[in-house]
Design brief:
alpha/beta, binds nicotinamide-adenine-dinucleotide
């Protein structure tokens, strides 16, 4: 426990850190070596209920009275504190999620940037005046929903909390955050930093716990006015059903099988680092991971060979060693990814390149050898399903029409990349790809804090990031005043 530096077994409700109502805890395990890391509260419906009530009290009290500019200043102060504490946050995320320290640092700074962006935007969301009937003035204003529920996964806690809770606070909502049971430490640190920044009690509440307990209680609570969920498709469907029962809006940020499409005229030197890194960053456990690489036949062999070289050079090891790739999050996730690799083997999918796992890895760690599979048929299971591990498939194609058919041919539609020097094709592809974001001659630029993000099809609906999130985290009210 001493490696963490603060009490991890508490929930944050109404400005107070206290044990969960049941007194029960859940273990956090360090995925780099399988050792116990900390205990977190096993929050229950009673904790969620108390958190929702505390959030409502904040809305009715000090938090609800702040102006938009005052809310913005608190977010900016919090951003500065996150930057000051970025090394410590990176350490916590590395221990908890297993990502190399440098990636943890990137995530901490991204969280700071979200808080800065939303802090700066808080007082810049304007309504409209609408030309209407004679003798009337009509206008729109944006109001907070009220209490917002935020259910987040374990893969990028800091980035996802920054974009979701940050935007909701900017619009004046009071938040109840349910972090993932696999990784909670930076979520708890977020609560402490919010307090240091001076957020009034109850504006930010945090209840760790199991999805089917604390998560289900939050998603079905009648005091919650909006739900933001980031996670898997099946749980997203449960959340949407729960939201429907209370007739509240829901943002679903779900999974993906995002393609990068490489045409023969592409600048391969520029493309290669993005093709590989966007696939295996955070050990492939990224919703927008470019897990399918589609390559036009004339350059297929060359691209595969050069990607394979990169795979063979990857250094895998414990997060604190800060190499290229760490472990996956858990033994369960390791089993899932290894199951996919077994399917690849049994169906004759060729390993084009693979990183070596060093012999001296900690025996309890959840390591998987990063693996490049090529050529893959577009309808192969591994080319269609989200693996959520360090595995990419490379699929050959001939021409634009086939590239589009393959790229659009899965249940998902989150992100796509296109690499070509042909300007007309850049635009045609960008318009015809069925997904929420398209990157042309880049992929995932700068974390995309400013760029609205979200999916279509099974990848979800609603948008977070950028200014668009501020509309999602507010309700539009129309006022028509008759004065003559
Ligand atoms: P998950 O759906 O199992 O869990 C996500 C969160 O939901 C956790 O906090 C969990 O406790 C909670 N939860 C689980 N069951 C619940 C229930 N019945 N009711 C309420 N809450 C419940 O997902 P995961 O395995 O932790 O995360 C991986 C998935 O998340 C992948 O599919 C990935 O693509 C997706 N993801 C999407 C984005 C995005 O922005 N689109 C970002 C990161 C991850």
């Amino acid at each position: 426990m001493s490696t963490i530096g603060f009490e991890t077994r508490h929930v944050l409700v109404g400005g107070q850190w206290r044990p969960g109502a049941s007194g029960q805890t859940l273990p956090l395990v360090n995925p780099s070596d399988g050792t116990p890391l900390a205990e977190i509260a096993r929050g229950q419906a009673a904790d969620i209920d108390a958190a929702v009530q505390a959030a409502q009290a904040a809305l009715d009290g000090d938090w609800g009275r702040l102006t938009a500019a005052e809310r913005g200043r608190l977010l900016l102060r919090m951003s500065a504190l996150v930057i000051e504490q970025a090394d410590e946050l990176a350490r916590l995320e590395a221990l908890d999620v297993g990502k190399p320290l440098k990636q943890g640092k990137v995530d901490a700074l991204a969280m700071a940037r979200y808080l800065e962006f939303y802090g700066g935007a808080a007082d810049k969301v304007h309504g409209q005046t609408i030309p209407f009937a004679a003798g009337y003035t009509a206008l729109t204003i944006r109001e907070p929903h009220g209490v917002t529920g935020h259910i987040v996964p374990w893969n990028y806690p800091m980035q996802i909390i920054g974009r979701s809770v940050g935007a909701a606070l900017a619009m004046g909502n009071a938040c109840v955050l349910k972090p993932a049971e696999e990784a909670c430490l930076t979520a708890l640190a977020f609560g402490r930093i919010a307090q240091q920044a001076g957020f009034p009690a109850g504006a930010v509440n945090i209840v760790p716990g199991l999805g089917e307990e604390a998560g289900a209680a939050l998603s079905s609570h009648r005091g919650v006015a909006h739900l933001s969920f980031t996670g898997s498709v099946p749980v997203g469907q449960l959340i949407q059903a729960a939201a429907a029962r209370n007739t509240i809006p829901v943002t679903l940020e779900l999974g993906g099988k995002s393609p990068q499409v490489v045409f023969a005229d592409a600048d391969l030197e520029a493309a290669l680092p993005f093709l590989v890194n966007a696939g295996i960053q955070n050990c492939g456990q990224t919703c927008s991971a470019a897990s399918r690489i589609l390559v036009e036949r004339p350059v297929f062999d060359q691209v595969v060979a050069r990607m394979a070289d990169r795979y063979r050079a990857f250094r895998v090891g414990p997060a604190m060693d800060d190499l290229d790739i760490g472990p996956v999050i858990s033994a369960r996730q390791q089993e899932i990814v290894q199951g996919y690799l077994a399917v690849a083997r049994d169906t004759g999918l060729r390993i084009a390149g693979q990183a070596m796992l060093p012999a001296n890895l900690p025996p309890g760690g959840c390591y998987v050898a990063p693996t490049l599979l090529a050529p893959a048929a577009p309808d192969h299971r591994l080319a269609r399903e989200e693996i959520f591990g360090p595995v990419q498939v490379v699929i050959p194609f001939d021409g634009e029409a086939e590239a589009l058919a393959i790229a659009n041919g899965t249940d998902y539609g989150l992100v796509a990349g296109v690499w070509t020097r042909d300007g007309g094709r850049q635009l045609r592809m960008a318009r015809k790809l069925k997904c929420g974001q398209v990157f042309v001659n880049n992929y995932g630029a700068g974390g995309g804090i400013e760029l609205p993000f979200g999916g279509v099809k099974h990848s979800g609906h609603g948008r977070e990031k950028g200014f668009e999130a501020l509309y999602g985290f507010s309700a539009l009210k129309t006022i028509a005043i008759k004065h003559d």
